[in-house]
Amino acid sequence: MNASSKSSSFLHNEILGITWFHGSLSVRTFKKGNLQGSWDAPELVTTLEGFETALDTALQAVSFKGKTVTLILESEDFVHQTETIPPASTSIQRNYLQRCVERYEKAQNQKMLWTYETMQASKTDVSAILHLLPSSFFEKIQSILTKRELDLVQLLPVIPTLGRFLETTENDPSESTLVVAEIGETTTIIAGQKGGHFFFGRTIQASWSNDSSRAVTEINRSIHYTRQHYHFPVQHVVLIGHSAHKIIEEVRSTTGIDLTVTEKEETSESLLTEAIHLSDKHPSNLISGHAKEKKRKRLIKTTSLSLSWLIFFFSLTTFITNEFRWNSHQTMMTSLETDIAALEEEKLLLEKRNETAQQHQLFIKNVLEDRLHPVAPLFLNYVAKKIPDDLLMTDFSVLWDQDISRWNFEISGTGKTGKSYSPNSLKLFKETLSQSPFSVHFNDDKSLNQLAGIQVIMPSNGQFTLKGDLFAK
């Protein structure tokens, strides 16, 4: 996750900020980025009907006169799930996650709004947190706000909002920061580095207000997990929530680390202050595409209205001056007949341009639909599981040969002792690969030493090399 983004395009508006965390509803109003008013629901709000009633009360309490609304949401309807993604370009990763969302929609039998945060799950793996909200839920929220002439421009999960604190931290780049927020009756923890580099995010079903010992324990576990898996020591912890000061010393004492702890007492105000600085086009905004479509429709409506007025005045002028323009019309027809040849030539040029455009579309379609499958990581995972205990793999490669339309591989290694290994182990390894779902075929090169019918380069130093291709017929 890269938390950075362009400045908010609506920051100078009067903004109604809403946080709705597992029934805990709070409202804050901002003007030019400064807090103006606040209201908190006295009881948990767990239904959309309750949300509508509470919103009316809040609008009256804070005397809000604007239209712009930002909503940070956490609820049972808002699903967050982790997916392992291929270490590829952003477009490939997004296409992969799109397929995951489609499977989820099919299983749930409903359309979803979704966005995601990429994270470095370990030193080698890349994962993403998918945020999935039923479209029907959003449409009901949108309907409630529209009735009150309010315009929802941001719908955000908690994690990307917390990511703003990673972006603004003053830590050394070699250190990492833990951001911990009390979200209703739960606690959300994220870890990362300065600039918004995101390691992981997790939510626990406890808060320091109702179970401080467990909250402190989970904070301690997250600190040690970050250090062990990413080798970046945690030197700064940001605590966001009521009574955060009560656990600061307990966090310091249990970690055994000289931590710098920053306390932000009010969760809703802190998160909304960061959220309104994000652009409505920020990738973590679930309705960024909806906002673009709404602007497009508004532009079309305005343009259509303007065109309608132009057509009306043009028609009126044409009606009044029809007799005077008759001769001009006849002259124009004569001119058009003279220009037929030029028009025909222009037609040919347009047809050629259309043909070129179709070729470009076909090329784009081929690029999008004919991507290679992620064979290399799948085969590497299989080899790592099946290699005998007395063998150690040192080099591995899988390449696609476009000329012969085939996957080629090469595996090099040695005995774990660095000196020797059992020939039977190599034979068993070869048989396992040959009978695997990858249908491994080993190249036949009689100039190399042969061991049980497989191609093996076996120098005196105890190393071996296997070459061949996958999915052999």
Give a written overview of the molecule.
This protein is an alpha+beta fold and 473 residues long. It folds into 4 domains: 14-159, Nucleotidyltransferase, domain 5 (2-Layer Sandwich); 161-265, ATPase, nucleotide binding domain (Nucleotidyltransferase, domain 5); 321-369; 375-470, Threonyl-tRNA Synthetase, Chain A, domain 2 (2-Layer Sandwich), CATH 3.30.980. It is built from 12 helices and 19 strands. The chain has helices at 48-62, 90-108, 135-147, 158-168, 212-230, 248-255, 267-275, 288-320, 322-338, 340-369, 375-386, 423-434; strands at 14-21, 24-31, 34-40, 68-74, 79-85, 112-119, 126-134, 151-156, 176-183, 186-193, 197-204, 234-240, 260-264, 391-401, 406-415, 441-442, 450-451, 454-455, 463-470. The strands form 5 sheets. The chain has a 5-stranded mixed beta sheet, with helices on both faces. The protein has a 5-stranded mixed beta sheet with strand order 11-10-9-12-13, sandwiched between helices. The protein has a 4-stranded antiparallel beta sheet with strand order 14-15-19-16, covered by helices on one side. β14 (391-401) and β15 form a beta hairpin. α4 crosses α7 and α5 (212-230) crosses α6 (248-255). The radius of gyration is 31 Å and the shape is flat. Mean pLDDT is 81; it is low at 445-460.
Summarize the structure.
With 473 residues, the protein is α+β, with helices and mostly antiparallel strands.
Specify the CATH architecture of the largest domain.
2-Layer Sandwich
**In percent, how much strand structure appears in the residues?**
25-35%
Helix/strand-derived category reads alpha+beta
Biggest sheet overview: 5 strands, mixed
* Mean pLDDT across residues: 81
CATH topology title of the largest domain: Nucleotidyltransferase, domain 5
Shape: flat
Domain module count: 4
Strand order of the largest sheet: 3-2-1-4-8
| CA distance, first residue to last residue | 43 Å
Number of strands: 19
Helicity range: 40-55%
Rg (C-alpha, Å): 31 Å
Highest-level CATH class of the largest domain: Alpha Beta
The total count of helices amounts to: 12
Low-confidence sequence ranges: 445-460
